[in-house]
Amino acid sequence: MQQVDTVIIGAGMAGVTCARLLTDAGQRVVVLEARDRVGGRMLTERSPGFPVDLGASWIHGIDDSPLWELVQTLRIPTLEYTVGSFQAGGRPMMHFDGEGRPISAAASARWIDDVASVDHALHAEIARSSPGDTYLDVTERALDASGLDAERIDEVREFFRHRVEEQCGAWIGDLDAHGLDEDAIDGDEVIFPRGYDEIPARLAAGLDVRFAHEVSRVDRDADGVTVTTAHGVFTGASAVVTVPLGVLKAGDIAFTPPLPTDVSGPIERLGMGVFNKIFLQFPERFWPDDSYLIRALGEAGERWHSWYDVSAISGLPTLLTFAAGPLGRHMQTLTDDEVVADVLLALRALYGDAVRQPIAHWVTRWGLDPHARGSYSHLALGSSHDDHDALAGPVDGILHFAGEATWGAEPATVGAAYYSGHRAAERVLGRPVDLTAAAAAVIARERAR
């Protein structure tokens, strides 16, 4: 049995942030990680000779962002790549109609205007929604009142459905009417040409991280906490649990005594979505050089609908598409070859024989990952924004929770994980902690080596 001041469960962004701050404050901290690496749902594949971010990819809005300040302090290079909450326009995009035919600039502009108009009405429908209303309910009301013809309604309806899938990893009928209330982007968004997981890796340098230490139970009493793994037992005055919501929902960690309803209720009510990535690298480019995005509208985009040009990372022609919600769960049951073939079928419906066989591909399956059990949290029907912050605890003043699902202002983001790790550290210490000091300390240690 090993005794420390604080036991942290999980070495994702929340866990390493909290551990870094507590360690730098003089605490004895151990981080127990089920995987063989840090980062959690930040996972960068580097074996091709360039980074492929299979997990988190973006900082969603750099204005007034402490996460962006951390990146700048660590001098990590970024590329501006703003997706704007699954935006309809605002970037050079190739749009195709429901039959897979390219549409004119005028037709694209009309569709973008349709989305904006119905979206404006949707905000009013959400504001007057009743408990029990889903996002599907309020979007249908807004569409019914739009006055658009059936074909244009179908195209906007598909856009709303896909927006929920990509932002929440869920079916539109499972999302609460207020499920996208916090879906706002302030400033540019950026991606990472060296890979996103450089951030947690550098924060974790020098920490006591125990890999392959999957936690099975957490006991608490008047003396503190006892955390059990297959490789030993760890005790501390406090513990911070940073595992994904999907792991908590599955009951993979037993808590004794049981968690109070203030925390167990949010775990039960909040949803855990599935959002998977498919990268396709081609021998040659078949889409326009200035096209940021390829998007199929209506029936042509019913399954695979949006392809993002991420060639700048590798310097090779590469498209990224997503499978989220029901499609994301379905594609996890298929082989890589089956998934790639299905995506190519949709692309060839737009570009024909110009779409050659990819020279490389990467496919994720976050819903099947036993240490994640999904991609990120969302506001499922029956939950509320308060549930995110209530999930953080603390319980009996000694058991804390952190991670993207515990940060109500910006759930489902790396920023949320970062900020929640900071909050947990402050609660453990019982005093404010300068978040910027963590990055400065990392730089100082790196220079000293």
TrEMBL record:
Record-annotated Amine oxidase domain positions: 13-429
InterPro entries linked: Amino_oxidase, FAD/NAD-bd_sf, Flavin_monoamine_oxidase
Single GO term (MF): oxidoreductase activity
Top-level division of the source organism's lineage: Bacteria
Cross-referenced SUPFAM superfamilies: FAD-linked reductases, C-terminal domain (SSF54373), FAD/NAD(P)-binding domain (SSF51905)
Record-given protein name: FAD-dependent oxidoreductase
